[in-house]
TrEMBL record:
PANTHER family: CYTOKINESIS PROTEIN 3. It comes from Flavobacterium defluvii. Residues 111-178 form the Transglutaminase-like domain. Pfam families: Transglut_core. This is Transglutaminase-like superfamily protein. The lineage of its organism: Bacteria, Pseudomonadati, Bacteroidota, Flavobacteriia, Flavobacteriales. One of its GO terms (cellular component) is cytoplasm.
Amino acid sequence: MKTRRFGFIFLLLNIIFTCSVLAQKYNEVDKIVLKYPKNFSSTEELAERINDDFKSDYDKARAIYSWIAFNIKYDYNAYLNPPKSQGFSYSTEAEKQRKIKELNDRLFQKAFSSKKAVCEGFTALYKHLSELSDLKCEIIRGDSKISVRDIGRKNTSSNHAWNIVLINKKWRLIDVTWGQGYYDSSKGRMVTDFSPVYFDTDPDYFFAKHYPDSGSYLGERISKDDFLNGPLIYNKTIENDFKIKSPNSGIIEAKYGDKIDVEIKNASRSNQVFYLNKRNQAVLIKNAKEKRGSLEFQIPYDNTIGDYITIFIDTNSIVSFKIVQK
């Protein structure tokens, strides 16, 4: 009875928070870009409009991010059925760079004209529009963490791409592919849902979900183990700056009767916190304590918990862990 009652509260809160999020999602740059046409005759025309409307490099970079996220959809069919990769030969570094540029030119033109792309098209278009706005921009390729099944993987793979853009002498991390939406496994389709959190993302959050092929960022090594074995975090974690202090690994070893200690910084007792058991029922966290700017609580590990556990705050998924039974 309590579970059913909590389910009703969950639905009611979801409606309230959805309205609140819509009101807060867009900044002033986004609101201007939302009024832009869906179609421009050329990328040059779009860049000219952006450069006319915005003067700071930061606003231009955000406007490019927003327009792409609003208008280019992820091509999930192309992701499932990728074309055969076409290699090329070269004899000099200059020839190599010329051929890479030709490839990226085809990618951004296809994305711009078809309004569909996978990550390579998103990143190529972002780089091209940035350069038309006199912004220095690069494409980074690497691995991504998008599912609970990614927690504890043994190896990384090159399956994703994102951008870095130089603004006010500082490189900013951009993932416009994830900014436009996400794949909903329960519905079996892509969901268009603009998210600003992948524009100028804090590196600590960004590299919890991304791992560059080079293994480094701006000359500093990034821990592959932390990426592979860390917990899975979500958009709302980044948006609300919910830092996961404990457990410090995404893999929890436990036996029945153990208590899993959880600490989430910047959460409070005013938040509704719960997790889902393996029957997908919401279990409300009670008697959580605020301490040092964090919310601390325990989850008893028993046979109602499956292979993974996801913690929610105010109806939003925040963090997932993999459970390994001792």
